[in-house]
Each structure stands twice: as C-alpha cells, then as structure tokens.
Amino acid sequence: MTTPTRPAVDRRTAAAMYGTMALIRRFEQAAYRGYEQGEVHGTVHVGIGQEAVAVGMIGALRETDSVLSHHRGHAHALAKGVPPERLMAELYGRSDGVSRGKGGSMHATDLRRGFLGTMAIVGSSIPVATGVALANKVRGRDDVCVAFFGDGAVNQGVLYESLNLAALWRLPVIFVCENNSYAITTAVGDATAGPGVAARAEAFGVQAETIDGQDVLAVREAAERMIEGARAGRPALVECLTYRFMGHSRGDPAHGVYRDKEEVELWQRRDPLRVLAEHAGLGDDLAAELTAEARERVRAAVEFAGRSPVPGPAALMEDIVK
C-alpha cells in the first residue's frame, strides 16, 4: 500500500471535507432509518465508514468531469454535488427525486452535475465509464470519467477488457476500487488470488496504486496525481483500502456471522472523520458544529422527501425512447 506523507491542509479545506463527510454519514443513517420505517422500498446499501474515498476522489475533479457508481453510491452522489433533498426523494420513490422517483437507491442519476448514475449490476459502472472516456477523447475533451466499484467486482472479466482498451486507446478514465474487505459475506482473500487488483492493472500498463481509504487527505493526494495523468492520456486504477462499519445491506448483520466484533471495532478506531479531524486539528467544537449543520441538512432532506408527491400512473409512459 502506498503511504505518502500526508500533505499539509489549510483549516478551511479540511473543514469543507469534514462537512461533506459528515453530510454523507448523516444521510446514510437517515436512509437506513427510512428503510426500517418503510419509506425506502427494495433495500438500501449504506457506505458508513467509507466516506473518505468519495470525498477525496470526487473533490479533486472539476465540474465537467463525470462519475459512475455502484449499488453503494449515495456518498458519490453527494460528493458530486447532488442535493441531499433530491437524492432522499429518489430513495423515497417520489416525483422530486433526481430520477423522478423511478430509479431508487441503486439507479439514481443527475446528469446536470456529472453524476451519471448508480448501477446495481456488479462491475457495470466499469465499461460504461470506459465508453464515456472514449466519447470525451473523440470529442477532443480531456474531461475525466471515474468509475467506482467494490472488491466484489474485481474478478469480473469486463474489468480487464476495460483496462485493456483504456490502456490501448489512452483514455481519460480512472477506475476506483473501494476494497472494504468483503463482497457481501465473502472475504476478499477467499475470492481474489495474487497481490491485488492494482498489480493486475499494472500488467496492462495502467498506472495503479493501493492507498489508505480511511485517510481523505491521502485519497485526495493520489486523486490529484491520477487525474492529471488521466487528462494526459494515462488511465489509472486506485485501490482504496476501506471498511463498511455496517452490514452489506439491511438483511445483513453488522458483525457476528462472518466478521467478529473486534475486527469492526478495530476499523472504527480509524473512522475517516476522526482521522481527518485529528490530522487537521479541527477541534471538538468545529467538528460538532459541522456535524450539526449536516444533521440539519439531512433533516430538511427527509422532510422534503416526505412532502414530495408519489408519481402517478402517467409517469410510467414518460421518459420512454420511442
């Protein structure tokens, strides 16, 4: 794992990053409660504990860059600037949602902000991002497309097809593996042979690194370097070692079945919000203030979602390509 010296960070930047991670944390907690209360249908996958990956990577992008996510994608949407009230309304299946209530948690899209969508099929963000990057190159643009995926997608063949084409065609794409140690209940070591996905990417001539995904500053530093290279035609893969503090989804207990309590507690001591606050010296008062602001924004988002109308039958025939 690459562990560069963490760069100095000014207080304002650190506070902004902390605020975004706090917003994601509170949003995920509210989404989980919404599922328990029957407001969020289907299921919900929260990324509590993984906030630093989204904020560090996406915070280094420019507005015209784009992002594709997977089934655990609320953090990526919020980090890309999707309004929390519109995202919560989408989870509630309401007309004011970013996908007009038709996509839900695993198919939320905000094209205007460069958030090209969450995708439920394992690994499906990878080839789509490769195609977006090809389109950018054909159009003479150096906009970067970032594809997020989990360690459970590492053995999907489409990853290697995409790495091959990205390297051959020198595409402005970055593949980000959020390695949280488990694909549902399967430990990464039980499913993936060899030294890891970064080494596999290097075999294609793709620049690749494995970094500490709990340290938002380390993620941001790597992102800035990789994005600069991608704009110049050097595609990249970043493996972020992180951890989900909760279960895979609502039907999966947080610990006690396939991972023990001690393991979870060990990772919780490296909570990304705590890591940033300690490194940047934010102090308890500022951290509490930023957390309170995030809590209020999420409370307002839940209220907005609750007031938003349910799509009527006519909505079924809208947005259909004929």
UniProtKB/TrEMBL annotation:
GO BP annotations, alphabetical order:
pyruvate decarboxylation to acetyl-CoA
- Any keyword Nucleotidyltransferase? no
Q: List, alphabetically, the InterPro entries matched.
A: DH_E1, PDH_E1_Alpha_Subunit, THDP-binding
Q: Which UniProt keywords apply?
A: Oxidoreductase, Pyruvate, Thiamine pyrophosphate
> Among its keywords, does the record have Lipid biosynthesis?
no
> Which Gene Ontology terms cover its molecular function?
magnesium ion binding; pyruvate dehydrogenase (acetyl-transferring) activity
Q: Any idea where the Dehydrogenase E1 component domain is?
A: 20-311
Known cofactor(s): thiamine diphosphate
Record's protein name? Pyruvate dehydrogenase E1 component subunit alpha
Source organism of this protein record: Sphaerisporangium rufum
Which lineage ranks, top first, belong to the organism behind this chain? Bacteria, Bacillati, Actinomycetota, Actinomycetes, Streptosporangiales
What is the primary gene name for this protein? acoA
